[in-house]
DNA sequence: GTAAAGAATGAAATGCGTTTCAAGTCAAGC
DNA sequence: GCTTGACTTGAAACGCATTTCATTCTTTAC
């Protein structure tokens, strides 16, 4: 396949001139420019993207590390990321980590290898020191709260949302507020926040219960059985996902309880499921977060300002019941 | 940052030897190998991935073109693609097309530019000739039925599934079988197949109706209103998505009809929604398709055999009602 | 009329590995 | 003792475009 040298030779100009035409430099004589373009067309020439990347030291590609187990709560986020990246003429490398630390840190070396210009970290298992160590090799932005101040982040203020939800439930007079989460508090910061928010909000002796390891509909059914078979039946439940909430609702019905008559339930991530079943769900506006994360990652001030975006989003509380 | 030259100099060997160490060539003296590795560690050296790509003429990256409007029915597919690609040590560039032909064809030039080793095409608007023309520059595999025999494809046999569904509904004795789809028949092959399957299966004069432009829950509610406000109320509905089906069920209830007492409904893509609401849904096993598509794309026989995988999957028909 | 600014262009260095080719060392085989 | 094959190793070509520097030719300005 033809390269820039062939084009230069055939057009009777130097390689530099061809490069200038390619990069739309001013100061190229019109006739030569046209000649070069004609030759490029004739030879069906394309630049070699890898040579460009090597030469320019820039790839116009960003990497996005996502756990990608199977539940797709990253969909909205990725959507936002793709949209903004496309706008800024960047491409997106999707890096599934399956929550494995080894895989995650191997992705960070892509920066060292100059294969990407920056990394967006969604939920991850990396230790702050690991991130810091590798952020020397390139830009990194977290889409989750990052415990290290030095790593720029754009993230939903989950804690504020949790506080808001628990306060809302408390003010409504519920006394048995159960809540669920996914990974256990040791490996999941958001689980810790959830527990902490509960403890800070509800200081009285409530008969609440906490359940972790909830990820999907079946898990919801499982913990629903635990909740409604129990002597202490919840009057409000705050789940960590709409699917889980749906499972709990289904389970409740088999035990003779029905939503919304017998209990209040609040989901998370605001998926079509909460819309369909008509329960409120906390919406973190992940699309916006994705877009902002890309903007921050690719902004010129990245290196200097190191902003820590803090986004405070509120729970959607108008229930639109299925009736 | 250190490059291979620096390493060679410091280790007192030639560049070639360093390269051999990097690529784990046999036939490098143990002492030199260790020395080189020590120096690489000392200098905190990393290969420049772009130089490697340029030099080897291979990127170990594949591109996946997805419409990425907003509904995430590509999630499972992408999951499969990521999994298999990761297994084969390939990386995945996610290329959103927003169903725009210009964008889609711009992505195909990535092959010419040697920036990716192959392309996976999901739902798209490209003309067969466009695909064929560009498949000369690299490997392309379609994850949808491709009208051109020369383009290798791995795809669900939607037509067979549609036939199966309509036959199932016909055999159950339904007479007013409404069905929905997304894009209109001019731009969407699957809409055409749906209509064709209906016509081939149900030759009698049924009072069925067809509705397009259905994409989400709200659309489902909208066409549900049309269906149940009408004098001809359906006794069976085949939708083109679980969200749409959920919308129709919700709408039906506002009109005094309820599922499953008054009508049968079948969804598509087998998402958690059909599980939650308890209606059957056609499952195309997109994860498996994604995996197979990657395997085909990266297999050595790709160039020679040009197989057209045809996967025949069946409708999930066991309903597990919410009740 | 001449200096200064602007336009146009090519040679060569640069970014960084991979791979081929030739050559040299050393031990086993006859 | 000599051939043969297995190891080792480095020089140099190759993959391909970008960019700096120097040079030459025009204009414009005073």
UniProtKB/TrEMBL annotation, chains A, B:
Transcription is among the record's keywords: yes
Keyword vocabulary terms for this entry: DNA-binding, Transcription, Transcription regulation
Limits of the HTH lacI-type domain: 2-56
Gene3D superfamilies with a match to the protein in the record: 3.40.50.2300, lambda repressor-like DNA-binding domains
GO molecular function per UniProt: DNA-binding transcription factor activity; transcription cis-regulatory region binding
Protein's UniProt keywords contain Transcription regulation: yes
InterPro entries, sorted: HTH_LacI, Lambda_DNA-bd_dom_sf, Peripla_BP/Lac1_sug-bd_dom, Peripla_BP_I
Residue ranges that the Swiss-Prot or TrEMBL entry lists as coiled coil: none
UniProt xrefs under SUPFAM superfamilies: lambda repressor-like DNA-binding domains, Periplasmic binding protein-like I
Name of the protein in its database record: HTH lacI-type domain-containing protein
Source organism: Paenibacillus glacialis
């Amino acid at each position: 396949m033809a390269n820039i040298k062939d084009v230069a030779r055939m057009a009777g100009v130097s390689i530099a001139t061809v490069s200038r035409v390619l990069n739309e430099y001013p100061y190229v004589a019109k006739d030569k420019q046209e000649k070069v373009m004609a030759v490029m067309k004739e030879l069906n020439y394309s630049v070699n993207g890898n040579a460009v990347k090597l030469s320019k030291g820039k790839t116009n590609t960003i990497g996005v590390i996502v756990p990608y187990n199977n539940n797709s709560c990253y969909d909205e986020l990725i959507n936002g990321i793709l949209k903004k990246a496309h706008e800024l003429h960047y491409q997106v490398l999707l890096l599934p980590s399956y929550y494995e630390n080894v895989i995650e840190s191997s992705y960070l070396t892509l920066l060292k290898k100059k294969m990407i210009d920056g990394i967006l970290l969604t939920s991850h298992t990396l230790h702050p020191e690991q991130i810091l160590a590798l952020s020397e090799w390139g830009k990194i932005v977290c889409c989750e709260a990052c415990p290290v101040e030095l790593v720029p982040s754009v993230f939903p203020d989950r804690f504020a949302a949790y506080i808001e939800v628990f306060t809302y439930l408390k003010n409504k007079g519920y006394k048995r507020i159960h809540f669920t989460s996914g990974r256990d508090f040791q490996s999941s910061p958001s689980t810790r926040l959830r527990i902490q928010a509960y403890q800070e909000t509800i200081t009285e002796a409530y008969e609440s219960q906490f359940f972790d390891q909830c990820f999907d509909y079946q898990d919801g059914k499982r913990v629903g059985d635990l909740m409604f078979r129990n002597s202490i039946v919840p009057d409000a439940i705050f789940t960590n996902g709409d699917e889980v909430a749906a499972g709990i609702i289904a389970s409740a019905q088999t035990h003779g309880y029905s939503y919304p008559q017998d209990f209040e339930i609040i989901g998370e991530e605001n998926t079509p499921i909460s819309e369909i079943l008509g329960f409120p769900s906390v919406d973190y506006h992940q699309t916006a977060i994705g877009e902002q994360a890309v903007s921050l990652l690719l902004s010129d001030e990245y290196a200097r300002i190191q902003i820590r975006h803090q986004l405070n989003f509120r729970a959607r509380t108008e229930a639109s019941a299925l009736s």
